[in-house]
Specification:
Nuclear Transport Factor 2, Chain: A; 8-stranded antiparallel β-sheet; 25% helix; binds zinc ion
């Protein structure tokens, strides 16, 4: 006895749409929930590993020896910078090298203004046009010097005869390009600086929307999406966010010359949604696999019940092409069929929100459950729904949602069960369905050693922040 769904019009297209547009759309939805009013959020950045402000300063200074800040070279700021720097900074070899260069009598620098070309800039420091030609002809990479940006600074070193010996320019916070005169012409070098990675803390209270408060707290859009992804199983960021919800995040921040140039991973996050608090901690196990866990070491990804019907027989497996028993055509079967007597209870495969409890074409009586933003399950051909199972209500894993039947296009009592990851159907019996592996016993101690300071950091920073606000 087989059975199945007919030429299903695109399977629940609404959810496909949602999955396709991703969390960005969900966040915009969240934005719409409270369209107006102001936002309150705070940000602090502190270096967790370093005890005193003086040590922080030293570390930041040491982290950026490769690239020289343009203000240090012969500008009035140079002295101030040196005065602030700890004594051991000036002793560092790379810094000394740059300083010598800066003091050289042949040093010239020009800032690119509107309408400038390499020729006009070279002319400003007294270099004839044939030198521009030689520079550009010296190699493919040297041509990068002609891609001038408004405000970019070109630094020239001229020898005692006024000939160009060195040309360099900072093209971004992390990158300097350099051309040095050799016996054979000019040689090109690219200097990439590695930013210092430090941890930063952000705290926000939602007054209007998550994106607005996150922005106010100094979190980038991608960081906000990361937070929604990390906690997306427990919190529905599209529909559940309310004013008064709050979050704490400890994340990696990349710093160059004291300036923030980028962000890295979220190390820990805590979100209080409608009075309930969820915590996530990033942990990389000894095998090198990284996941987010709750504070007590459980996986944030919840496992799904493998089989939503007890004592059922699999009557049809997942396939990308099979002969449909009613339509008599080759069709993909994007789910698994479980045959069982009429009235057998069907259980929710995981916690979630009911997106649909009603009739859905050839599926007959159908329940669709969204499990966070990533996962969806569908249950078709049901005889009827359990009490309280309505579109929009919440369900717990294992809760009975309905009973086996044969409604819709079906040849006999069975459950048609589908599983989606990010809008793509996967075999519910495959390895693609997430397992909730907690921290292994052997790694428990290591996990605690790493996670506890992160959680303590969030507690401490938040307390400091609240105390400061009271003053
Ligand atoms: Zn089926």
């Amino acid at each position: 006895m087989t059975n199945d769904t007919p030429k299903a019009p695109p399977l629940y297209p609404k959810s496909h749409l949602l999955a396709a547009s991703g969390i960005a759309a969900l966040l915009s939805l969240a934005l719409l929930v409270f369209p107006s009013s102001e936002v309150e959020a705070k940000k602090t950045t502190l270096n967790l590993e370093l005890e005193t402000p003086a040590e922080q300063l030293k570390d930041e200074a040491n982290a950026a020896p490769l690239v020289q800040s343009t203000t240090e070279q012969g500008s009035p700021f140079a002295q101030i910078e040196n005065a602030q720097a700890p004594a051991d900074k000036t002793a560092a070899a790379p810094a000394v090298e740059e300083k010598t260069e800066a003091k050289a009598p042949g040093h010239r620098e020009v800032t690119v203004a509107r309408g400038d070309t390499l020729s006009t800039l070279f002319a400003k420091v007294g270099l004839p046009s044939n030198v521009v030609h030689d520079v550009l002809a010296s190699g493919k990479q040297a041509k990068q010097f002609s891609q001038l940006k408004h405000g970019q600074v070109l630094q020239f070193e001229l020898d005692k005869d006024g000939q160009l010996s060195n040309l360099h320019s900072k093209v971004s916070n992390l990158e300097t390009i350099r051309l040095s005169k050799t016996d054979k012409g000019y040689s090109f070098q690219r200097e990439i600086s590695k930013p210092l990675v430090r941890t930063a803390y952000a705290h926000g209270v939602i007054k209007s929307s998550l994106s607005a408060s996150a922005q106010r707290a100094g979190l980038s859009h991608s960081m906000t999406m990361d937070m929604a992804r990390v906690l997306g199983y427990d919190i529905d960021f599209a529909q559940d966010i309310r004013p008064g919800d709050e979050f704490d995040v400890v994340y990696e921040q990349k710093v160059m010359d004291g300036k923030v140039v980028g962000t890295g991973n979220i190390l820990s996050a805590r979100f209080t949604n409608r009075g309930k608090t969820y915590t996530a901690v990033r942990y990389t196990n000894k095998q090198g696999n990284t996941n987010y866990y709750t504070a007590d070491g459980n996986s944030l990804r919840k496992a799904f019940i493998r089989t939503p019907v007890d004592f059922a027989r699999i009557s049809s497996r997942f396939s990308n092409g099979r002969k449909h028993p009613i339509l008599n055509k080759i069709r993909a079967h994007k789910g698994v069929d479980y045959a069982a007597p009429r009235g057998t209870p069907i259980k929710a495969a995981g916690d979630g929100r009911i997106e649909l409890a009603g009739r859905r074409g050839g599926y007959g009586n159908t329940v669709v459950i969204a499990h966070g933003n990533r996962y969806k399950t569908l249950y078709g051909h049901m005889q009827g729904f359990a009490k309280g199972i309505k579109t929009g209500s919440s369900v717990k894993q294992g809760q009975i949602i309905g009973y086996i039947g044969t409604t819709g296009l079906s040849t006999g009592p069975h459950l048609h069960y589908e599983f989606q990851v990010n809008g793509v159907h996967v075999d519910p019996l495959s390895q693609k369905v997430p397992m909730a592996d907690p921290i292994a016993k052997a790694e428990r101690q290591r996990f605690n050693q790493q996670s506890q300071p992160l959680i303590a950091r969030m507690d401490q920073e938040k307390a400091t922040l609240l105390a400061a606000n009271k003053r």
